[in-house]
């Protein structure tokens, strides 16, 4: 039997005043997603274990049947994997943003005004050449990613990952000096000292870098700072195939989710025009999912657009993104499975809520619906946060959702 999971990142929500207490899922027109609820079984899934950060890495690990309390070790390591950076078991890696600090020393934005990849690669190359290896027995390496998102690794076993950092997108408007990395253990003091020095040296190098001189002339924000956060060591994960005896593929525009897939031994499928935004290539992703089913038992289709709309607090856009997920992905996948005659289960869910009124992730359990081979309808006739509570699945935890979707 084959399984498709359709994941709308941040899709669930809390009651919205502007919708008279309804949620985007309750008002969006989504007949195909509702069909999964109607013909299948519904319930809630606790994707963020108690005490864990409510980020997409933790939540997507849970959906994929891994225990984030064991596997999660920072998003830098996950993004490194998707960028093709091989980390040694002792290497520490972390996310490294290029961002903009204003004249008062405060974070103006976490993205350096969404700097282009081409510009950022020049900056990262110069950072690596000037600051990277230099420090003898304490090497550091900059790895170029996309736009403002890069990775810094500290190879060779000298560094500790036991330190706290401030995710810059959560601290816009705050002062740089108040947000330095801090050691959680004595063993991390040297690492933290090196990182603070690196960030200081980077400020000097970037401030008047030719790329930034031009950006200022064009009225754009300069990428005048380098910012590290979410450190960790390479996660030790069993492959999906070892755990469940099935092969699979991940279709996502987001480095983080691609990285999870790589550590899980799933095929990473890149779809042209998949942007991670509302204008993503929905049809291309749906088609790629159907094609992947020809060679795999399992396909994970991740769509970021709903989460972005939530972060932007854009209610209309979030509703529209749910309708796109319904009409341009779910419909194609359901029709394609029928047309190709696959024995399959299809599940739909978010990884976590990203409520439009707060624009930030939440931790409460997410609504799930699964239809297909061997699943009896449970009387729930639509898919939303309230309707699924009456379903037969109850509250699922751990790997129970995934095993259910796989037909175990
Ligand atoms: Zn997410």
Structure description:
Strands 11-10-12-1-13-14-2-15 form an eight-stranded mixed sheet, sandwiched between helices. The chain has helices at residues 24-27, 31-39, 56-63, 68-71, 75-82, 117-132, 189-207, 210-217, 240-244, 255-263, 282-292, 305-311, 315-340, 400-406, and strands spanning 2-8, 41-45, 92-101, 107-109, 141-146, 149-154, 163-164, 182-183, 225-233, 248-251, 267-269, 298-303, 344-349, 366-372, 394-396. It folds into two domains: 2-72 and 236-406, Alkaline Phosphatase, subunit A; 81-233, no CATH class. It is built from 14 helices and 15 strands. The radius of gyration is 22 Å and the shape is globular. The mean pLDDT is 94. With 408 residues, it is α/β, with parallel strands linked by helices. Strand 10, helix 10 and strand 11 form a beta-alpha-beta unit. Zinc ion binds at residues 9-10, 56, 59, 307, 351-352.
Mean pLDDT: 94
Predict the CATH topology of the largest domain.
Alkaline Phosphatase, subunit A
Beta fraction of the residues? 15-25%
- Considering DSSP H and I runs of 4 or more, what fraction of the residues is helical? 25-40%
**Global morphology:** globular
Task: List all distinct small molecules, including ions and cofactors, that are bound in this structure.
Answer: zinc ion
CATH class (first level) name of the largest domain: Alpha Beta
Walk across the major sheet and give the strand order: 11-10-12-1-13-14-2-15
The counted number of beta strands is 15
In terms of per-residue confidence, which ranges show pLDDT below 50 for 5 or more consecutive residues?
A: none
CATH superfamily of the largest domain: Alkaline Phosphatase, subunit A
CA(first)-CA(last) distance: 10 Å
Largest sheet: 8 strands, mixed
